[in-house]
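Work package 3, deliverable 3.1, input record:
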Amino acid sequence: MRATLEALGAEIDRALDDCRSDDDLERVRIGILGRKGRLTEVMRGVGALPAEERPAIGELANVLKRHVDTRIQALRDHWAAERRRQELETARIDVTLPGRAWPVGHSHPLVTTMEEAIAVLVGLGFAVYEGPHIEDEYHNFEALNIPADHPARDMHDTFFVGDGHILRTHTSPVQIRVMEDQEPPLAVIAPGAVFRHDDDVTHAPMFHQIEGFLVDTHVTFGDLKGVLALFCQRMFGDDTRLRFRPSFFPFTEPSAEIDISCVICGGTREVDGAPCRVCKATGWLEILGAGMIHPAVFRAVGYDPEAVTGFAFGVGVERVAMLKYGINDIRLFFQNDLRFLRQL
Amino acid sequence: MKLTLNWLREFVELVLPLDELCEALVMAGLEVESVEEHHPIWAPVEIAEIVSVAQHPNADRLRLCQVRRAEGPVAIVCGASNMQAGDRVALAPPDTALPDGRRITRATIRGQVSEGMLCAARELELPGDEEGIMILPADAPLGARLVDYLGADDTVLELGVTPNRGDCLSILGVAREVAALTGARLQLHEPRLDEHDPPTSDAVKVAVEAPDLCPRYAARVVRDVRIGPSPPWMRTRLTLVGLRPINNVVDVTNYVMIERGQPLHAFDLAHVADARIIVRRAGSRQEFTTLDGVERMLLPDDLVIADGRAPVALAGIMGGANSEIRDDTAAVLLESACFTPTGIRRTARRLALTSDSSYRFERGVDPTTTAAALARATELIAQTAGGTIARGLVDRRAPRAPRPATIRLRPARLNAVLGTTLTAAEIERPLRALGATVAGSAKTALRVVPPPYRTDLASEIDLVEEVARLSGYDAIPATTPAIIAGGTGLATVREPGSRLRQSLQASGFSETVLTAMGSAEDNRRYPGLPDLPGDPVVLRNPPSTDATELRRSLIPGLLRALDDNRRQGEPLVALVASGRVYARVDERFHEGRALGLVLAGTWPAPVIGEPPRPAAFADLKGALQLGFDRLALKPVRWEPIESEAPYLHPGKSARITIGGVLCGVAGALHPDAALECGLDGDVWVAELDMVRVVQYCPRRVVFQPLPRFPAVLRDLAVVVGSDFQAQQVLDTMREVAPPLVEDVQVFDQYTGAPIPDGKKSLAYSIAYRAPDRTLTDDEVNALHEQLVARLIERLPVEVRR
């Protein structure tokens, strides 16, 4: 029995030596260790041996089995390592071929700017409201202290849709709608589309504004300055400087137009020695209109102008987006050319 | 409003350099829109006198002139022939550069020496289109530089004047502002008139029958004028500020309007019937020809200036052709009046006729300047057109002419609005600088009377603004308020739309912004979602012929964007738009919120070595469903479309319902519609009613605990008729599912052998799970058999084993 095992051992070693692949190895393994394998049969036969031979032969058979397992594993590891080595030597991809374009959609710079501005203002404590695009003349004009025959209406070339209704020329009527509906304190922004009948090809008949207003018992022009400074610095960078110029809007007084230091030249008025073209070498860019809410507006909504004060501001979203992204033609926003949209 | 610095200097000393002056004006609310420097390069041109004119000995077309310069006579060869001895002319001495690039030299022309050139107006880019050289008035000072004589060396500022500051629409008004800002003193020239009998009141009768529209009307008469060009300096100045010189009388009225802000009109007195002026309403519809030659229809309420017979001017807007100043006018009737803004504006707007005059009246003209401006114009007419000034003026004032009222200004209120701590003295100083009178107590209220030319200052807040403006907005300290107002506003409405758009963007759809306007044809073809009520909203004054209505659907705009992008050669276009859609229901207006998608081309974008795949319905549905899942919307159902959207392919489109309510449509564009907009291949579109979608969004998402025991999956393939929908089997299985069936999904569809013709195989995956233990094979097998048996009972399906 011992001799048989030894002979088997030698035979197995030869068979394993001849193996050249995992398939060969598997065939040999089954021949040895399978259900009808040679070693399996030997080990099955151990039970029939006389009791005094069993431990020694059993031990021998086990040693042989461990030897076979070890050799098979070693061969497999060896060949796997060999395959990895070959793969490393031969496998080559052309890394200069273009990558696969994942189908990803792009944000629109106008929507992005709008959402960013809303997020900044919501962060400052303002709540968001919207109003109708089709407004009545009362909310768009009269309640905002713009009577029918006032020359300020020249600032608003209006689209008419009949029955005393128009397309809102600004987001300011939302002020009226919210104040008619609610009592102060109010901190509200109203983003959205507005419409003006502009003959100028560089103006779009539809564009976007964000109106903001704060009404409370002690709101001051100084508060307006502080809030707008925060807003502009978050939108354009912490080193943005602001300039408040007196202006005129019928629904605010005092009124101001707000310039920020030029986003291109930083207010130095020149770029590489040449006059800055973005701010026309003034160092400033007009960005917002604002002011203290006019007492006539408070009276129109039934507030007591002696009891409350408030500020309001309006910002043109296209203007902000054009400055932020260096876009020089407002029409690009509405053409939706993917070559344009993909840039964001 | 254009003005020149030299003109401004006649009223106020300019103590600041130009850039600081501009800065001061800007920071006071007068925007400086442009600064034009006019420094003629022909500055050496001087005023000389023709001594003699002779024929050039060697050239028929040339003249040889002896010309007297300040420093002595010179000979000039000249091609023109309109001069004679004694004329004052413009002589360009050698070395003078001309605007056209030429440089004058001492030259010998056909054998005769010429020591310079006599200039024509157009050679110096000056107004005037006379033939030949410029002949200057006889009083032009010999030897003076022409540029000084004309005032052609000047700087022109263009100011943006806000509608409330009508007082700044004049040199005088800006000078007042400069004086208030810089502390310089205003200097006002007082006209001196050499008046003669008979008095004006004999020459013309004035009656104001509409004092509500014309609180003041003043007139003067100048007889025996000679109409001709106005003096060169006046023409130069008018040209610099953008006005076209016409004749001496009309130019004076324009000059004084710019200088004093008071619009004036000059009539030919001979053509004022009965020498009567009646300021009245037109009274009836009638045609009237304004002096620009246009016939205009007047309405009964329009204010006119009439003579004894008929209207001779559209009050405050434009004169009539019938009474305008002509070359043979001998007697001039000068009108200086104050008309109320609203009347002027109404008429001017209706007639779409804006003049420099109506522009000023609409913004308010100082009622106290009427007579002074009239005197100034009379003085200038006498200087430029000669004639005799009739004694006195006719001045009709409404019984209660508007007077500046006293305004109470509470310093405490001012500081409360501005957030400042200004003292009474700091408040009074700028008000006084404006020309207001200030009295009263600083503790309670100041009593302020604004100057009459500031018609915009009527209430306390107006004065608060003036104090802030003149003290400088920069001086107001910025503060950061603690905003404690409550309310979330429309966050709940906006947020789901924003999340859906983000999800669609992640699925490959780029965001677009579409204009709200479209054509009637767009609205006819794409009437919007089935529940959008009413008719299109029609614009009464559309911006263009292809934008006459407000859109009812986002799809036409998306299709245009698709078409534009395909023209650019984009292989795949996937766009999403959101926005309002509009409808009119009787006299009311409705605004809906929509979200639209368009998808066409090959998907995903082709890569090397892989064939492109056309975008399919599943791509559109997958992207949308992913978005719905992100909003936790349920139950969302996709069903074959019925007749909801005629622009969709009836066999390749779906209606989307949420909780049984129609919320949108999605599918292939109808081939006819695709053909109409020039698109070929499948174009996938969708439109959602976002108002409804938002209604079905759960207010909060509640997380489910993770299962503790594994699910066991069983597949089931059934053979059904080929018109069977996967959903039918799915619905039935869910309906009859025994307990512990957690989920049923369809995962395959197959036609072809061995499935018979007219049939298809659908494969479903069923997940079984118990919450408290791992299911055994036997348990699952029993449940699955039960499910299959119930399914066969309910539907004509054959189970593939």
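Chain A has a mean pLDDT of 90.
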